[in-house]
Amino acid sequence: MGYGFRYVKFKRENFTILRIITIRETVTEAVEIHYLNGGLALEYAPTDRLSFSGSASVGHVLYNQADNSLLGTVRGHGGTLGSFGVTAQYAVGTSWQLGLGAFTEVQRLAGGEKEQVVWPDNHLNMYGGTLNLRFQF
Fold first, then answer.
1. Residues of the chain with pLDDT > 70: what percent?
2. What is the C-alpha to C-alpha distance for residues 112 and 135, in angstroms, rounded to an integer?
3. CB 77 within 8 A of CB 109
4. Model confidence at 15: pLDDT above 80
5. Which of 78, 86, 131, 137 is the most exposed place for a label (fewest CB within 10 A)?
């Protein structure tokens, strides 16, 4: 069990607001999320040089804030966040490890209110890869 913080900045284009207004220009959006979560991590090492790991977690969002370059700031409370990741690591030497992995994260953030307009919930699905080099001493 733990506390987590996410800050994600991305560009959004051709999106609809409140199912009424379609924005055709590109805007920058930054999402800040504070949450409590719990998870599980497993590791398997078939040889001294090769290891595999996986992790999964789920959490409850305490607070979220979206800053949009066109619309301003919208604050919300509540929601859920889930993530899953896998990594393969290979020991290059006695102290160095090279890792390659993949992750996915699903965010379901409760909407907020700005200028007496209730904003809908925000759903964000992220996925990607990781490449890391680790030194142990």
1. 86
2. 43
3. no
4. no
5. 137
Tens of pLDDT, residue by residue over 103-127, are: 999 988 887 766 666 666 778 788 9
Residue 118: the pLDDT is 65
Largest CA distance in the chain: 60
Structure tokens at 72: 């301003």
* Closest of 77, 70, 61, 87 to residue 29, by C-alpha: 70
- Tell me the whole-structure pTM to 2 decimals: 0.69
Give the chain as a DSSP string: -EEEEEEEEEEE-SEEETTTEEE-S-EEEEEEEEEEEEEEEEEE-SSSSEEEEEEEEEEEEEEEEEEETTTEEEEE--EEEEEEEEEEEEE-SSSEEEEEEEEEEEEEE--BEETTEEPPPEEEEEEEEEEEEEE--
Compute CA distances 35 → 24, 32, 40, 45, whole Å.
32, 10, 17, 32
| The pairing of beta strand 72-76 with beta strand 50-68 | antiparallel
